[in-house]
Amino acid sequence: MTLGDGSLNTIIVVEFGLYLLLMVVIGYLVSRSAKNHSEFLLGGKQLPGWALAFSERATGESAWLLLGYTGFVFATGLSAVWVAAGIATGIIFSWLFLAKRFMEEADKYQVITLPGYLAARFGKHAKIILWLSTILIFSFMMFYFGAQLAGAGKTLFAVFNIPPVMGIWLSFLVVVLLAFLGGFIAVVWTDMIQSIMMLITLVVLPIIALVKISAADLSISQALMSSGPTLDSWTGGAIGFSLGLLLFNNFAWVFGFLGGQPQLTSRFMALRSKKEARTGSIVAVSWTVLAYSGAFMIGITALTLYQGQTFADVEMILPIMIMDLFPSWIAGILLAGILAAIISTADSQLLVITSSVSEDIIHNALKLDLTQKQLVAVSRTTIVLAGIVGLVIALTSESLVFLVVSWAWAGVGGTLSPAVILTFFWRKYSGIGVIATIATGFISTVIWISTPLEEIVSSRFTTFFFAMTAGIIFSLLFPDKKVDSNDTHSSGKGTAGDKPDLEGSASANHETLVGNEETVSDPIKL
C-alpha cells in the first residue's frame, strides 16, 4: 500500500476534514474566555500546567519531527540519535531550570512577552530592546510561518493528493481562524489535542512496526549493515575531527531551547503556580522521551521493513508506514497527527508575530492610548495581515522548509537564548549587553548562513556563541550603574518593593538583589 492509493483517499480526507472542523469548533467555544489583551495573548493565568506542557511540546515540534527527523534517521541510521539527544537535553533543561523562573519573572514585571520582559528588566534601554527584538522575531518568524504553510501544502499533496496550492490555502484558513477566534487560549487547547495525536502516532507506529519485523523474522542489525556502510554506526563512521563536528553540529539544536524561542517561553510565562510548573515539567519531559524515542525507532524500523527499496522523498517514510501498517480509518487518524504538528506550530508562530507588533511595539514602544478592546482588535488585525504575508511567502518561495526552519532556530533561538541565560544567571548583564546580544545574533546569523561556513559548523551554535560573547563584553564595557540599596531607597528609585508600572508591559523600576547591593537600571522611558 502506498501514498496516493485511491481506495484510501475518501476515508482519509473525510477524517481529516472532520479533524479540522473539530479544531475550529473548539477554537470558537473557548474564544469567549479571552476578554482582554493579556488573556488574548497569554491566557490570563487560566490554563493548567499539563495543558501548557502539551501545547509547548506541540509548538516546539512541527512536522520536522514526524517527517523531517524520521526521514533523517532513515537516511543516516544510528548516528541520527545525537540530534534527538541535543534537542531532548534542551527541552529538559528549559522545563527543569527555566520554566518556573519565567513564570516568576512574568509575574514580577507584569509582562506577557519575552521582549517585554527584557525591556522591563533593563528599563533605560527598553525602547531599543523592543524594536530590535521585534525586527528579529518578525524577520525570521515570518518566513518560519510561511515555511509551515509550505510544508502543510507538501504534506497534503503527498498524503491526500490535495494540490499543494489548495493545501496551503486550507492550512492558512485553519491557522488564522484558530488564532483569530480565541488567541492564546484557543491555541493552547487545540495544541493539547494535537500534541496527544502526535504522541499516539510516534508511540504506536514503531510498536506495530516491531511486531511486523518480529513476525517476518527480519533483523534490524542486518538491515542497518546492508543499507549502507555507516548506517549501523553510532558515529556515522566518522573519526577524529570529523567525528567531533558530526556530534557537535547534531547536538547544537540544544542552544535554541535555552529560553530563546518566544513561542515556547510564552507557555512558561503563562504558568500560574509552582505546582503547575512541576506538573508541566513532568508532562513535557515524559512527552519528549516518548516522542523522540518513537521517532528514532520509526526511522530504524523503516530501514528494516523497506531495506533495498528507494524513495523519492525520505521525509514521506512515516506516512508510507502508516498506510502500509494500519487500516484506512486508523491511518486517517494517525495521518491527521502530521498536520496537527504543522498547525500547532504555525498558529503559535502567528501569535508570536502578533504579540511583537501589538504588545511590544504598539502598546509598549509607541505607548498608544488604546483600550483593552482596541488592543485585542489590533491583535486580530495583525493576525490576518501577518497570515496573508506568510501565505504569499508560502505560495511564491521554493526550497523553503528545511533551510528556513534551521535558520530561524538559529536566528531567534540562538540570539534570545543567551539573552535569557545571562539575564537569569549573571548579575552583571546590562541593558547595553542585551542590545549587543540581539544585534550580534541577528547579524551573525545572516552572515554565517550566507557562507560555506554553515556547512562546517552550524549557525545554531555560532549565533549563540557570538551573541553571548557580545553580551558579556558589552556588559563589562558598559555596565548598568550600581548604587547602594540604602541610597536607592532614599532616592526613591528602584526599590525592591515598588509595584512595577507595567500597564504597557514595562516596569518603571528593576533590580537584581545581590547581597547588600542592587544592580539598578534607570526607569523605563518609552
From TrEMBL:
Keywords of the record: Amino-acid transport, Cell membrane, Ion transport, Membrane, Sodium, Sodium transport, Symport, Transmembrane, Transmembrane helix, Transport
The keyword Secreted belongs to this UniProt entry's keyword annotation: no
Main location: membrane
Subcellular locations according to the entry: Cell membrane
Topology versus the membrane: Multi-pass membrane protein
Gene Ontology annotations of biological process type: proline transport
GO cellular component terms listed in the entry, alphabetical order: plasma membrane
Superkingdom in the source lineage: Bacteria
NCBIfam families hit by this protein: sss (TIGR00813)
Recorded family membership: Belongs to the sodium:solute symporter (SSF) (TC 2.A.21) family.
Function recorded in the entry: Catalyzes the sodium-dependent uptake of extracellular L-proline.
Name of the protein: Sodium/proline symporter
